[in-house]
Amino acid sequence: MRRFVPRIPRLRPAALLAMATVLSVAASSPVPALDILGFYAGAAAGQAQVTLGAPGISTASFSENHSAYKFMVGVRPISLIGAELAYIDFGHPGGSLGSLAADAKIDGTAGFGMLYLPIPLPFLDLYAKAGVARLKSTIRGTAPVIGAFRVEASGTRPAAGVGAQLKFGSLAVRAEYERFDVPGGYPGLATLGFTKTLF
CA of 56: how far to CAs of 62, 94, 145, 150, 151, in Å? Predict the structure, then answer.
């Protein structure tokens, strides 16, 4: 029986020298840094879970999901840490407060410290964020005895979140989940957005 022996092409010395030159140049070339540091701006949209209470009106809580958005600016002076400011609008959902028809709104600003985790993938960031948010919450409705009511509250309270982003040079696409503290509830916000490093 005849055995099949694959034929390996012979490389000429000039081809070997050219390949060796290309490989040595590639090995010695610096890998482009994907940790683009500096000031950035961006926007994001997603879904908010709007949870609020109305003390004195009902023992129940208002809880509805609604589309939401935010704008942010930030700075990343070094690879592991940064800071970010954001304006957040949780939308204006309608729903119920116990047996009462009601609608709610939450919006305001937040400031976060950012901690980027050291991972061996240069095109990916995983991060955690913690800070404070100054949010204004409003819940409105109509009760049988007191008629129309409006309950407003505002304050500065803790906020935190986690996220991941894919980097394409100065652009990054990010997904985040954040949690906030407001009177009567802990609304959450899940968003998909982008940032661009400006300088």
Answer: 14, 20, 13, 11, 9
Q: Does CATH number 2.40.160.20 belong to domain 34-197?
A: yes
Range 92-96 contact pairs with CB under 8 angstroms and sequence separation of 24 or more: 92/66, 93/50, 93/64, 93/65, 93/66, 94/64, 95/62, 95/63, 95/64, 96/62
Closest to 76 measured CA to CA, from 167, 161, 158, 159? 167
CB 170 within 8 A of CB 194: no
pLDDT in tens, 158-188: 999 999 999 999 999 999 999 999 877 899 9
How do residues 12-43 score in pLDDT, each as one tens digit? 444 434 444 433 433 343 434 455 789 999 99
Pairwise CA distance, residues 128 & 117, whole Å? 8
Which candidate, 44, 35, 32, 30, places its Cα nearest to that of 167? 35
Confidence of residue 97 (pLDDT cuts 50, 70, 90): confident
CB 155 within 8 A of CB 183: yes
Query: How buried is 26 (Cβ within 10 angstroms: 0-12 exposed, 13-18 middle, 19+ buried)?
Result: exposed
**pTM, rounded to two decimals:** 0.77
The tokens describing 141, both together, are: 């409705």
Report yes or no: 62 and 53 within 8 Å, Cβ to Cβ: yes
